[in-house]
Amino acid sequence: MPNLTFPSDPICPLCDRPIPPGVPQSRHHLIPKLRGGKGGPVVLIHQACHSMIHKTITETELARHYNTVEALRGHPELAKFFRWVAKRPPGWKGKIR
């Protein structure tokens, strides 16, 4: 994996909330590693946003159709979740069912 650096005050590109230190966060491979994305672009996002992505979309769909931030934000079910979670505090760690 390439050596990645993220800003000291990152913003989740999916829900537009800050990602302060200590908040559960994750690096999302825009193309899943198992579908050829090893070493490819990644984005720093909230763990809740990451969990929702993988609950909603298969690895194959991610690789083929949802391999950009814009595409993820355009997915109907994810867009609804991102709008909802945007109203939560940055440290919100609710369970994704």
TrEMBL record:
Say if the entry is tagged with keyword Hydrolase. Answer: yes
GO MF annotations in UniProt: endonuclease activity
- On whether Hydrolase is a keyword of this UniProt record, the answer is yes
Query: Which keywords annotate this record?
Result: Endonuclease, Hydrolase, Nuclease
Which PANTHER family does UniProt cross-reference here? Answer: HNH DOMAIN-CONTAINING PROTEIN, TUDOR DOMAIN-CONTAINING PROTEIN
Q: What is this protein called?
A: HNH endonuclease
Species annotation? Paracoccus fistulariae
